[in-house]
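Exercise 7. Predict the joint structure of the components listed below.
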Amino acid sequence: MTTSKPGRELNEMTTEPIVRVRNLEKHFGTLEVLKGINFEVKAGEKVCIMGPSGSGKSTLLRCLNFLEEPTGGMVFLDGVPVGYVEDANGTRRRDTEGNINRMRARMGMVFQSFNLWTHMTALANIVEAPVHVKGISRRAANEKAIGLLKLVGLEDKRDAYPVQLSGGQQQRIAIARALAMDPEIMLFDEPTSALDPELVGEVLSVISKLARDGITMIVVTHDIGFASAVADRIVFMDQGLVVEEAPPATFFRQPKNERTIQFLARMQDRSFQSG
Amino acid sequence: MSFSMSVITDNWSIFASGFVATVIFCAISTVLGLLFSVPIALSQLSRTWWWRVPARVLVEIVRDTPFLVQVFVIYFVLPAMGVPMSSTAAGLLALSLYGAVYFSESIRGAILSVPKGQVDAARATGMSQSLALRKIVFPQMLGYALPPLGNQVIGLIKDSAVLSIIAVPELTMAFQNVLGTTFAAPEAFVTVAVLYWMLTAAVAFGMSRLERLTPTYRSTRQAVLLLAAADR
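Solution:
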């Protein structure tokens, strides 16, 4: 969480954040969804963003890859502003479309509602972006896609259309699609919230496998079990602000902020009722 | 009432050439209309007003005035403003404009029917807007656009009869010529109606065939088959 440079020679990976969010604001008309968000993610770190619905978690995630344009503040990827160019005296203008697209390609995104392209088979979904965005050959992309289908346990579904797949299968294909671009960071926006309870496990186990492989991950989730198992750090948001940040052990056992305590109590009520 | 087949057989070449002219007119106008409808639709969906507003104005002018009046404006007003216009050129222009505007509304609606998440997913992989349009939006849009487009092509064919007013030598004009020489109204009416019907029926059949080729049709058909299988 330090922005100072002195520790750099010790271990560059752990001192220089791959993602830095500075005073990020997002307004929709008069609605202030994000009111000045600050946090950092180091390379290889797994961060779970939690918080009540309406706290701005998904909007924050969508600002990271510029699917939403922030109203104020800035996101930095490897120290480079996302979506804007800043000149010497601090004024900013929109970056070129090409640069924005290249920046987005470095971050894989998985959506709550999967968003698989409905007119394409599972394999075609995975191959599409590598072929047309990265320009790699269809043969190489196919080979890679088949490897990814194996990784998510769906090699037998390569020719299935999204409508033929369960929600859990669709989300695993969506994860494979994002991974096909070799992203440096994976963004997950409530990846299991739209799933039937019995399908949550298969998706979370794929995400946990990725986490163990060391890719940087930012996951918006309501799943306390998953967050405590996978996250290096929990970022808790409420009403458009980061309220608390802590490793899961501390966050779940000794929450400091009043709103965190209330939120966790409500979550426990809910899991008691459903369990 | 007598019905004489000889009216039809004697004047067959007049009907035939009118029919061919109508087919050619409608085919050219449909192709030109389709070509221009996509940019009109995209302009209307543009974020910048200098694309959006002119496209909207054009659509509203053409959609909200009678086709007959548009034909008159193009045939009589444009030449008065120094743009020379033959009846054939005026007819083609009017019909193509009609096609472009009505088709563009179907295409705009179809684009808006593609769920936003489909584009989000495309942009998130780094696809440019134009790549996302070509690879994701257009293929999905086709399934939504073809049924209304089929209706509008049929409408265009039927409204092409209006062009006989400015003496475009098409099917309705041919009918009037036959009527003028033979005074055999029932025979001429029936012949022209059957010829129009054959053309529109062929278009309707062709469009339903085209629908089956769209990616949306194929992928949703899989779902329907799946449901049918589950029912058993």
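Discussion. The radius of gyration of chain B is 22 Å.
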